[in-house]
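Backbone-to-sequence.
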C-alpha cells in the first residue's frame, strides 16, 4: 500500500523551481504523486514504501538544489 510524506522545501523562489522538484521526485521509482507548493514551501509525496523511502525522496529534493526536511 502507499504512504504519504510531507517535506519542508526551502529556497524555491519561482514556479519553475517547484516544477523541477516535482519532476525529479516523480522520476524516482515507487512514486505515486508529488505536489509541490512554492508559496508554502511544501512538497507532499505519495509513494510505495516497497520501492522508495522518505530519505531517498528528501535527498532527491536536495540534489535539485533545495533544503528539504521531512515534516511528517
Ligand atoms: Mo528560476 Mo526558480 O532559475 O528559483 S527556477 S528562480
Amino acid at each position: 500500500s502507499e504512504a504519504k510524506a510531507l517535506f519542508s522545501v526551502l529556497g524555491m523562489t519561482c514556479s519553475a523551481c517547484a516544477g523541477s522538484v516535482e519532476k525529479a521526485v516523480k522520476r524516482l521509482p515507487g512514486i505515486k504523486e508529488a505536489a509541490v507548493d512554492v508559496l508554502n514551501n511544501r512538497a507532499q509525496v505519495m509513494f510505495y514504501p516497497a520501492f522508495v523511502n522518505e530519505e531517498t525522496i528528501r535527498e532527491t529534493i536536495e540534489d535539485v538544489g533545495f533544503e528539504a526536511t521531512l515534516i511528517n
